[in-house]
């Protein structure tokens, strides 16, 4: 799909895209990549971050390590760089939601990332994202109307999903910072 997307780009855009990878792991950056992954994982999934890691480890002990360090640290979190585009926390969440929505059959992951997007507003962390955009736009994206828009075009399905998200957020608030509580 990505190859088809790139092939469809006008030459003036395709020729301006980076040709060298920006997310290579080296001895000099492995700790910072892992730290960025851990920070983003906690920011999105708190207070259930530890519970989710334990649940993933039940499938395979390397699964949470791979996800936190390689997916969140190596892919989702913006790398330290001098040149190149930075996506930021809000746009990364929106991209994750769009990809999960397109994949289908990954409701729990989709739910987690919508909750994570809403948390960025609730805890104010979106303000430290220089790429987040205007406050009114972020407020709309995390609103019920915004969530319906990016969850799906079918309003009835989106309302069902939104209701589920609101219940999960309420459970998370009740769990507080004790991540041993929550889903089992």
Topology at a glance:
Blueprint: H1 2-8, H2 11-14, H3 30-45, H4 49-59, H5 63-76, H6 89-103, H7 107-122, H8 135-142, H9 144-151, H10 155-175
Helix pairs in contact: 3-5, 6-7, 7-8, 7-10, 8-9, 9-10
Description of the molecule:
InterPro entries: AhpD-like, PTS1_Protein. With 184 residues, this protein is mainly alpha-helical. It has one domain (30-175): Up-down Bundle (AhpD-like). The protein is built from 10 helices and no strands. It has helices at residues 2-8, 11-14, 30-45, 49-59, 63-76, 89-103, 107-122, 135-142, 144-151, 155-175. α3 packs across α5 and α6 runs antiparallel to α7. The longest helix has 21 residues, at 155-175. It is globular.
Notable traits:
184 residues, mainly alpha, AhpD-like, 10 helices, 65% helix, globular, disordered C terminus, PTS1_Protein
Calculate Rg over CA atoms: 17 Å
Q: What portion of residues belong to β-strands? A: under 5%
Assembly type: single chain
N-C termini distance: 35 Å
Global shape: globular
Tally of discrete structural domains? 1
- If you average the pLDDT, what whole number results? 80
Which CATH architecture would you pick? Up-down Bundle
Under CATH at level 1, the class stands as Mainly Alpha
DSSP helix fraction = 55-70%
Major pleated sheet = none
What is the CATH third-level topology name? AhpD-like
Broad structural category: mainly alpha
């Amino acid at each position: 799909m990505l190859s088809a997307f790139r092939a469809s780009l006008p030459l003036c855009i395709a020729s301006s895209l980076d040709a060298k990878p920006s997310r290579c792991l080296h001895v000099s950056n492995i700790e910072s990549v892992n730290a960025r992954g851990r920070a983003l994982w906690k920011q999105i999934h708190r207070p259930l971050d530890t519970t989710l890691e334990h649940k993933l480890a039940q499938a395979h002990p390397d699964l949470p390590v791979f996800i936190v360090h390689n997916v969140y640290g190596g892919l989702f979190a913006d790398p330290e760089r001098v040149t190149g585009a930075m996506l930021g926390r809000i746009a990364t969440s929106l991209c994750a939601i769009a990809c999960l929505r397109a994949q289908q059959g990954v409701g729990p992951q989709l739910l987690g990332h919508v909750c994570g997007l809403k948390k960025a507003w609730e805890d104010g962390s979106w303000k430290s994202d220089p790429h987040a955009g205007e406050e009114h736009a972020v407020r709309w994206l995390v609103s019920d109307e915004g969530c319906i828009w990016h969850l799906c075009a079918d309003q009835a399905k989106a309302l069902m999903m939104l209701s589920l998200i609101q219940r999960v957020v309420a459970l998370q608030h009740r769990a507080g910072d004790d991540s041993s509580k929550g889903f089992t």
